[in-house]
Amino acid sequence: MEPITIVAENVEKRFSHRPVFKAVSFEAKPSEIIAITGPNGAGKSTLLKIIANVLSPTKGTHVWQSGSTQLDNDGIRVRLGFSAPYMELYDELTAVEHVELVAAMKGIPLSSNNALELLEGFGLDPKIAKSDRRLRAYSSGMKQRVRSAMAFACSPAALLLDEPTSNLDDAGTAMMLTHATEAAERGAIVFIATNDERERAIAHREIRLEPV
Question: Angle at CA 100, nearest 5°, toward 193 and 123?
Fold first, then answer.
């Protein structure tokens, strides 16, 4: 996937006339890891959703660019990997089916073997990953590994990770941080919404949000 840049200018967000944050500006370039930090309620997840084009800003603009081309919603969707502990999964699908679904939505071929390899790379037990066990029988940590694999599927140009090590043990945390670092080394932009010191430690810079 070709490299991109993401530029935000004076982005603000309000909910029911209540300001969440004001005047956030940045330019994110390939191979950067950027931590979005701040106390609870400062709008970390909200800003991440705006960058992902899931929410619209109340004021300001944000643009995804590939070279001189501004990307539309479809262009963003194909290049985006997103993970958050609140991201819903499908109880009736297997882990492999979840990863395959992400690839299908992007129109990018992905074999079951590649999906299995990705899940195992995030620490999901190979026997479980290969089985027909549905997600309703997974623990919170196992589900987080599936979300991680879904985010990294198809080598996205931008990864937006909301508390990516939530519900993970030390081994799972190390795997996630390694994958995020390696993605940036391959040219991806990585945003991490976090207050976890381990996640902040791999970032090249921070966007600090304060309650308004």
Answer: 55
Residues 6+ apart with CB under 8 A from 38: 44, 195, 208, 209, 210, 211
pLDDT range class, residue 1, cuts 50, 70, 90: low
Order of strands, edge to edge, in the sheet holding 18-28? 18-28, 5-15, 59-66, 69-70
For 147, residues 6+ apart whose C-beta sits below 8 A from its C-beta are: 83, 84, 85, 87, 89
Domain with residue 160: its CATH number is: 3.40.50.300
| Whole-angstrom distance, CA of residue 117 vs CA of residue 121 | 6
56 and 50 Cβ atoms separated by less than 8 Å: yes
Q: How many domains does the chain have?
A: 1
Domain of 54 in residue numbering reads as 5-208
Report helix, strand or coil for 64.
strand
List, for residues 126-173, the tens digit of each pLDDT value: 999 999 999 999 999 999 999 999 999 999 999 999 999 999 999 999
pLDDT in tens, 175-196: 999 999 999 999 999 999 999 9
What global pTM score does this model have? 0.96
